[in-house]
Amino acid sequence: MPSPARRLMASISSTLSLKHGLSLRPTHQQSASLIRTSSAPGIGFRSFRRSFVAASSSAFSNENREFVIVGGGNAAGYAARTFVEHGMADGKLCMVTKEPHAPYERPALTKAYLFPLDKKPARLPGFHTCVGSGGERQTPDWYKEKGIEMIYQDPVASIDIEKQTVTTNSGKLLKYGALIVATGCTASRFPEKIGGNLPGVHYIRDLGDADSLISSLEKAKKVVVVGGGYIGMEVAAAAVGWKLDTTIVFPENHLLQRLFTPSLAQRYEQFYQENGVKFLKGASIKNLEAGSDGRVSGVKLEDGSTLEADTVVIGIGGKPAVSSFESVGLNSSVGGIEVDGLFRTKVPGIFAIGDVAAFPLKMYNRIARVEHVDHARRSAQHCVKSLLTAHTDTYDYLPYFYSRVFEYEGSSRKIWWQFFGDNVGETVEVGNFDPKIATFWIDSGKLKGVLLESGSPEEFQLLPELARRQPAIDKSKLEKASSVEEALEIARSSL
Ligand SMILES: Cc1cc2nc3c(=O)[nH]c(=O)nc-3n(C[C@H](O)[C@H](O)[C@H](O)COP(=O)(O)OP(=O)(O)OC[C@H]3O[C@@H](n4cnc5c(N)ncnc54)[C@H](O)[C@@H]3O)c2cc1C
């Protein structure tokens, strides 16, 4: 009988949803796609004619709100900015969030936020949205100045779609004209019965989680990171920066299996090992053990061995936070709330954006959910623009993922990769990681996806153009390229 941990890991792998929102989509070539997808929906989306309930002139003094955003994360912050840009925030917009903070750039939590304490870690207000895309830093004061009502630490608990109201945990009733659901994901957890809630066991989804991890790292000696996705990769890179004995454990054969090819993963694994990270691949966890003080003391594996640990970080993916919004219409295959190309749900006046939205990925003609910050930002802007203006162009997203690690002062080298497009078909790898490497995905003679490590700004700029235009490419020519620069030039000339 497999253990609960093993079942959990197996179910995560078999639903192909491990690692941070990237998903495996087996194709005829058995390659992996990065996005949760399903076939196009057969449902019709009723159009929403704007017939807002009036907010009182002394804004927000009664229960009526014109616009309500549920969630205070990445997508919510960019949505608020778009309302302001259209002059539709002041006295009209209300944001209800579970967190005690105004929206911030969540990816920082496993990057600069986890720098060793003497290496200038990022802290709020430094990374409030929208600084991640070069925009204004929207501090709590910014929301006040813009006349946006912020309801902090009071999650929405239920919705009544007939009455157009939401009720918060504390019992606040808000009547909305239009509602945008931006609740993101919650981190998948190990069950309590196998030690998933022991002191010293951490999950990272919000700033409170990251603070709690930092307080463990301050006392830690041995850290075990569970999960070989990029949360795991980022946390392991941070932990060795703290000079801690760090082991990363995962059931797959190599890091970031959903995106990296085995040979690409090997380059990263070697670099991690040179920087002190130990690997335990193909390993299943039975349970987490507690010491006499009740704190986690080890990670017991299915093979009977135990890894000593005083701090365990679990990075095994997330689930869309939809519990209060089932009546809005969920997608049964990719999860999340189903929307059309303007982020409208089936219920007029209700929209969903960011990680929680299951939207038509036009380029690849499938429904997808993308758990990445670039999509959170763009979906927010697209949705609010369509809601407030006559703009009716449907969302046409080009999948983009990135990670950056070992960026702290004194690190042997900074690692920064970007990927654009679809990871389907055969691959050609060019470069030896010293200092660069590129992987090209080619399907039916066309370039479908590109990953580049340590490119120049100009080189990174070329990637979206290649992935969007999908030029026919001469694979053998690419294979003969003697450098990443030459390979990119071959790709550019095929446009
Ligand atoms: C640690 C970490 C590192 C990441 N690194 C990267 C990266 O390197 N690159 C990348 O592309 N992406 C990265 N991501 C993913 C990226 O951060 C998300 O895709 C993005 O934050 C999604 O934005 P969102 O607004 O949909 O959800 P979130 O930013 O998660 O915001 C959701 C908000 O809704 C709130 N909420 C939930 N339920 C309710 C409710 N019922 N009522 C009120 N509020 C509610 C939550 O508390 C939260 O504030 C990372 C994510 C994490 C957690």
TrEMBL record:
Cofactor section: FAD
Monodehydroascorbate reductase 3-like C-terminal domain: residues covered: 398-477
Enzyme class: oxidoreductase
GO cellular component, one term: cytoplasm
Positions of the FAD/NAD(P)-binding domain: 67-379
E.C. number: 1.6.5.4
A family per Pfam: MDHAR3-like_C
UniProt keywords, alphabetically: FAD, Flavoprotein, NAD, Oxidoreductase, Redox-active center
Matches recorded under InterPro entries: FAD-oxidoreductase/Apoptosis (IPR050446), FAD/NAD-bd_sf (IPR036188), FAD/NAD-binding_dom (IPR023753), FAD/NAD-linked_Rdtase_dimer_sf (IPR016156), MDHAR3-like_C (IPR048618)
The keyword NAD belongs to this UniProt entry's keyword annotation: yes
MF-aspect GO terms: monodehydroascorbate reductase (NADH) activity
Similarity comment: Belongs to the FAD-dependent oxidoreductase family.
Protein name: monodehydroascorbate reductase (NADH)
